[in-house]
Each structure stands twice: as structure tokens, then as C-alpha cells.
Amino acid sequence: MKEKALISACLIGTNCKYNGKNNALEDATLKALSEKYELIPVCPEAYGGLTTPRTPSERRGDRVVTADGIDVTEQFRKGANETLQMAQLFGVKLAILKENSPSCGCGTIYDGTFSLTLTAGDGVTAELLKKHGITVIGESKLKKDTL
Is 145 a residue whose pLDDT tops 80? Predict the structure, then answer.
């Protein structure tokens, strides 16, 4: 039986990104991942009730705000909690999440100024999963860490 892993739905080609598009990985990468893991797609932002497409959001400390100044922290927290529940339900120990995202980013995220400036930090979901002992990696780490 294969180990289960969460994966950001946008990375497998689901059009759930803020702009209505996706961040699909190369077919060869997806094939290699699916041979090793039972992949469980998640989109914390959708789970939190945000629409697709939606206004871009970035973290500002413990808050998440849209480019037009609306606080969407509660939606991001709800989505993170839903994602954690799914991980726990399926006994997931690994999450492969979209880098730099205010929900899924791991290690670096946009700095909250909407200037495309990256800063050290984790997205809301990545932070919560890590606190519960789930290993979180971004898509650029796949070849080194998981395949």
C-alpha cells in the first residue's frame, strides 16, 4: 500500500489558483509522484470559502489580506483547519504544497506588500500542518526530497 500525501490541487492541474488558472507540475513529475504516493488534492483557500478566481492575498504577520485591503484571515484559517482534518483522517505524513502561497507556502511567502517581494515564512496551512507533525515541502524540493 502506498503512503498517502496531500498535494495542492493547483499542482495537479485543477484551476483553483487565485486567477482561475493552475500551477500544474510536469507530467513526468506527476507520474513519478503518483507511482510513489496516493495523492490527495487539497485547496485550502477553496475549503475556506474563497471563490475562484479571487483577489490575490498575502500574509501580513498573523493576518491575511487581499490586494484591495479586505481581511480574509478567517477564511484562510478555516481552510487550513479543513486541510488538517483531511490529513489526519487519511493518516498523511507529507504535504506537497504550492510555494510562496499565503496558505501553502513553505519557507518563503510574499511579504504582504503586493510587490512580488518574498520573505521568510510559511503560509497559514503549511504552518498548521507543520505544528501537527506533518512534513511540508514545496514543489521545487520534489526531486531532491521525495522522488
Answer: no
User: Kind of pairing, strands 63-66 and 57-60?
Assistant: antiparallel
Alpha-carbon span 91 to 133, nearest angstrom: 11
pTM of the full structure: 0.96
The tens digit of pLDDT for each residue in 41-84 reads 999 999 999 999 999 999 999 999 999 999 999 999 999 999 99
CA atoms within 13 A of residue 38's CA, in its CB half-sphere: 9
Q: How far is it, in rounded angstroms, from Cα 13 to Cα 66?
A: 24
Mean pLDDT, all residues of the chain: 96
3-state secondary structure of 126: helix
Using DSSP's 3-state secondary structure scheme, residue 44 falls into: helix
d(Cα 108, Cα 125) in Å, to the nearest integer? 13
The DSSP output letter for 40 is E
Q: What backbone phi and psi angles, to 5 degrees, belong to 130?
A: -60, -40
User: Are the C-beta atoms of 92 and 6 separated by less than 8 Å?
Assistant: yes
Segments making up each domain of the chain, as ranges: 3-145
Average pLDDT over residues 17-36: 96
